Amino acid sequence: MDVRRSWLAPVLVALALVVTGCASKQPSTSGHGSPAVSVSPAPTFPLTITDDEGVSVTITAPPKRIITFAPSNTEIVFALGLGSEVVGVSGSFDDYPPQAKTITQVGGSGDFGVDPNVEKVVSLQPDLMLTIAGGDQWKARLREIGITVFTINATGFTDLLHDIRTVGEITGTSAAAATLTAQMATKEQAVEAAVAKEARVSCFFEAYYPPLTTIGPHTFIFDLLERAGCDPVSGGAKSDYPEWSVDQLVAGGPAVYLVASESGVSAAAVAKRPGFAAIPAVRDRKVLLVSSDLISRPGPRVIDGLMALAEALHPAVFSSP
Questions:
Q1: Helix or strand or coil: residue 124?
Q2: Chain centroid to CA 73: how far?
Q3: Which among 147, 179, 257, 269 could disulfide-bond with 287, CB atoms 3.0 to 4.6 Å apart, if both were Cys?
Q4: Angle at Cα 153 formed by Cα 151 and Cα 155, nearest 5°?
Q5: Whether the bond into 63 is cis, omega within 30 of 0
Q6: Structural domains present in the chain
Q7: 99, 78 in Cβ contact below 8 A?
Q8: pLDDT tops 60 at residue 47
């Protein structure tokens, strides 16, 4: 199986699903300033709360059988100490922490293989299915047969902290969520403070190739890049995941070219593409690989992804004395 496509195909489908849900939820902060962290009181059940698709959901009691239908959600639930209560995950990409790889996979249905198998979901008798944006039809079907479905859709780092606290609220783990998000916010603020001392770096992020696809200004990864001290040259894009031409790249003149390490593309391979030699980042050998798992999954490890981006963009700031 082609390594690049084995990772990118489901990621791009997932990104498309997220895009369909973004219109109903605005980013929780303007710009990319330091996130404020609030501590929610311990929830009282039954609890009724509106999810990120505007659906009012009632949680009758702290869930004991949870299906996480996205790798990011799996990581969040495990980080809140609920790993033993996860009875189902979306698929093979739910690989962190390692224990997640042993849990029943419920995905693989639908035209693109990214929908859940409804029969398998029902057989696991979940009292909560935590998912991401999109999939209106199967969500409606699950709700009709009594499955509690709750959607989160992080539009940026600050919104991710809000979503983690929300998951803490609906699972009865508000204290753990408050501690986790406070730690993440502290680390994020330290990164932003460090890169603020340096000139911002122009960069380009390759989401897919071919065709060459990047990220627009209203995406989660774009928000991380800005926080890491980068001004993406795709800031004027009109869509979330636009195709980009070599001419646009040359005109934008990014000083750093970022590409996901899991895509199977090497810096040397990027440099050999037709016309890429005229791009400043390629000419100056500033094509850098980053872990997609750390920046494309809105979960606790995003803070590690932010640090990795900041180190790549501003190596002098983070180099050991």
A1: coil
A2: 9
A3: 257
A4: 165
A5: no
A6: 3-24+32-186 (3.40.50.1980), 195-318 (3.40.50.1980)
A7: yes
A8: yes
Q: CB–CB of 317/194 below 8 Å?
A: yes
CA distance 105 to 133: 19
> What local confidence, expressed as pLDDT, does residue 32 receive?
60
Cα(25)–Cα(53) distance, rounded to whole angstroms? Answer: 7
**CA–centroid distance for 41 within its chain:** 27
DSSP secondary structure letters along 162-214 = HHHHHHHHHHT-HHHHHHHHHHHHHHHHHHHHHHTTS--EEEEEE-BTTTTB-
pLDDT tens for each residue of 277-305? 999 999 999 999 999 999 999 999 999 99
Strands (E) across the chain are located at 47-50, 56-59, 66-69, 86-89, 128-131, 149-151, 201-206, 230-232, 256-260, 287-290
Partners of residue 39 on adjacent β-strands:
none
Query: What distance in Å separates the CA atoms of residue 313 and residue 321, rounded to the nearest whole number?
Result: 18
C-alpha–C-alpha distance, residues 185 and 39, integer Å: 13
